[in-house]
Design a protein that fits this description.
about 350 residues, alpha/beta, Aspartate Aminotransferase, domain 1, 7-stranded mixed sheet, 3-stranded antiparallel sheet, about 15% strand, binds pyridoxal-5'-phosphate
Length: about 350
């Protein structure tokens, strides 16, 4: 079986399954602005516990969970540093500056791969009255625009040790921390150990229609709750959404390993005809990022050609094409992609 259009633009394109919809329909709910939605409350407790943290806050998006997190760590006029291609600086439309008066500086890393020295080299805490002070560092795991890169635990540990000495907080953009866990075997609590705030998404590979959480101390989460309301993002009987999150954690977490296998098989199929475009050993999780700078064709033209063959992919840069595997794909879909994509690449190679 194959889908008519094979959608590899993102893992956000999944639709809630029948089982998930059933769970949503029968969820007990209440007014969450009053703190009275039992399904939201239990999801917040569950995710906080999963990461060994005191509390969590259900959010309508991962961007909101990121923004509430960094707002809790960084004062206006202070600085957050992060990798150049991280979501928090490239895909949240300047929210840190607009809402929280946060300035940013970035370091560039191949595939977004964390090396603790990169942020440590540019961190400038307590910079006095003339220079901007660094108060937090954000780490993205897995790294989305880096191609689903899993961050090495040793580097995370080192970053924690050194940044703690400097009095700098750490935020984890863990939109796909689920994928990192499945690929690395590292426990969620271990990840939780090294970060002051964490954001996670249920709406990516886990297949929920909506939902992210901000995870931290009780005090920060209580304060973030006020800011969430101030932003107009307080929700009422949103337990029907939280129920999808519970369902996703119960059922969909172990399925991520299949997404990873499928992404690897796409990378292998590309490598077989165009080894310059990708090294399959760098495909850690469910994202295949193709660097097509060695081809004459642009990513946007390649994505148009793919679309004509029934495959959707994202042109994220002039020469960067991203394909993401997810829950709603079939084996037939992957077989089709592994025929169509190499064919088009072979054509592009002789241009
Ligand atoms: C998707 C994503 C987010 C959050 O995105 P929303 O669309 O706001 O839910 C945050 N960080 C990373 C790395 C992401 O991939």
């Amino acid at each position: 079986m194959t889908n008519q259009l094979i959608d590899l633009r993102s893992d956000t394109v999944t639709k809630p399954s029948v089982g998930m919809r059933d769970a949503m329909a029968s969820a007990p709910v209440g007014d969450d602005v009053y703190g009275e939605d039992p399904t939201i409350n239990s999801l917040e407790e569950r995710v906080a516990q999963l990461f060994g943290k005191e509390a969590a806050l259900f959010c309508s998006s991962g961007s909101l969970a990121n923004q509430l997190s960094i707002r809790m760590l960084v004062n206006p006029g202070e600085e957050l540093i992060t990798e150049t291609n991280s979501h928090i600086v490239r895909a949240e439309l300047g929210a840190g500056a607009v809402f929280s008066g946060i300035t940013t500086r970035t370091w560039l890393a191949n595939r977004g791969l964390l090396s603790a020295n990169d942020p440590l080299n540019i961190a400038r805490p307590d910079s006095g009255p003339y220079l901007v002070s660094t108060t937090a560092i954000a780490v993205e795991n897995t790294h989305n625009f880096g191609g689903g890169t899993v961050q090495p635990l040793e580097e995370i540990k080192k970053l924690r040790q050194e940044s703690e000495k400097l009095g700098i907080f750490l935020h984890l953009d863990g939109a796909r921390i689920w994928n990192a866990h499945i690929a690395s075997g590292v426990d969620f609590k271990e990840y939780g150990n090294y970060f002051d705030t964490i954001s996670v998404c249920l709406s990516k590979g886990l297949g929920a229609p909506v939902g992210s959480l901000m995870v931290s101390t009780k005090e920060r989460v209580l304060k973030a709750r006020q800011w969430r309301k101030r932003y107009g993002a307080g929700m009422r009987q949103a337990g029907i959404l939280a129920a999808a999150g519970h369902y996703a954690l119960d059922n969909n977490l172990p399925l991520l390993k299949d997404d990873h296998k499928r992404a690897k098989s796409i990378a292998d199929a590309v490598y077989a005809v165009a080894p310059k475009l990708i090294d399959p050993s760098t495909v850690d999780t469910n994202i295949v990022g193709l660097d097509i700078s060695s081809l004459k064709i642009t990513a946007s033209d390649l994505s148009t050609q793919l679309k004509e063959k029934g495959v959707l992919a994202s042109a994220l840069g002039p020469k960067y094409l991203r394909l993401v595997t997810h829950l709603d794909l079939t084996d037939g879909d992957i077989e089709a992609v592994n025929q169509v994509l190499p064919q088009l690449l072979q054509r592009a190679l002789v241009l």
